[in-house]
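Incident log, support desk, overnight shift.

02:14 A customer reports that sequence design results differ from what the structure should imply. Their input is reproduced verbatim below. On-call engineer (initials T.W.) acknowledged and began investigating.
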């Protein structure tokens, strides 16, 4: 099966545009010193590496500086939506009184944008055409919510939206997988050598693939929604048409020039 294209407008809307944001992801969340972050930072405090122009001062060496968690993070376009649309270009730096509401709105926007990523993926699957009406209705509802005011966003019930999307995405995956591939949903496959395991069209939703050896694996049309791919070795693997794969999942894994990804996802810089 050829790669599954997301429509360009959808893909563009769900891509971070840091130049139109004000470093929200570098201020709003808390960091705990760990393998992902070299420092502790409470929520709402700017990272010490955040420069005055709202750009990262160590952007080109995040991994060398012990901040791979920043490399993996993706806002799905929530940053620019929060600053430019929700707050009409106003931001926490110029108006500190906005900070709390802006950071809260960013959290909600990110959750909504991530849902949109999955729903756009579902809508790009011809095999799930019978479900497109339902997916489009939910996509439009979620997209409408991203245009809300700060107060409206504060009232969004994200868990309820996820609860609505989950079963629908599951049915989409069933149609795309077409009864092929093993069902390993939620399986603990951490550290496992899966190079010879048949995984084409596998159900790997929520699977723990931390550090798994997936070199050369055939993961075409596999459902990878929420699968933990941190440290997984995807060198030479084929993920063409894999369902619900995100940039954070890909960036958290290892791969190389031979790794094939679904359309709409690029090889992370650290794979080169
Ligand atoms: S290290 Fe850079 S990307 Fe990470 S939080 Fe700090 S400023 Fe942002």
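02:41 Re-run completed on a clean worker. Output:
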């Amino acid at each position: 099966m050829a790669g599954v294209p997301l429509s360009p407008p959808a893909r563009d809307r769900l891509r971070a545009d840091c130049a139109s944001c004000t470093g929200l992801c570098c201020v709003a969340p808390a960091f705990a010193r760990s393998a992902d972050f070299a420092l502790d930072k409470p929520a709402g405090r700017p990272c010490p590496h955040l420069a005055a122009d709202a750009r990262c001062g160590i952007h080109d060496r995040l991994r060398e500086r012990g901040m791979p968690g920043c490399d993996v993070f993706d806002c799905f376009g929530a940053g620019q939506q929060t600053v430019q649309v929700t707050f009409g270009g106003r931001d926490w730096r110029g108006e500190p009184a906005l900070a709390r509401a802006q950071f809260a709105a960013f959290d909600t926007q990110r959750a909504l944008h991530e849902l949109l990523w999955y729903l756009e993926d579902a809508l790009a699957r011809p095999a799930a055409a019978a479900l497109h009406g339902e997916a489009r209705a939910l996509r439009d509802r979620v997209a409408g919510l991203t245009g809300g005011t700060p107060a409206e966003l504060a009232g969004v019930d994200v868990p309820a939206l996820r609860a609505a999307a989950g079963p629908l995405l599951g049915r989409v995956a069933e149609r795309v997988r077409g009864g092929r591939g093993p069902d390993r949903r939620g399986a603990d496959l951490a550290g496992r050598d899966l190079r010879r395991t048949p995984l084409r069209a596998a159900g790997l939703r929520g699977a723990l693939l931390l550090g798994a050896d997936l070199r050369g694996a055939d993961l075409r049309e596999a459902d990878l929604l929420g699968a933990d791919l941190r440290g997984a070795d995807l060198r030479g693997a084929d993920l063409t048409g894999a369902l619900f794969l995100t940039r954070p999942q890909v960036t958290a894994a290892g791969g190389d020039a031979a790794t094939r990804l679904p359309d709409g996802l690029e090889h992370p810089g650290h794979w080169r």
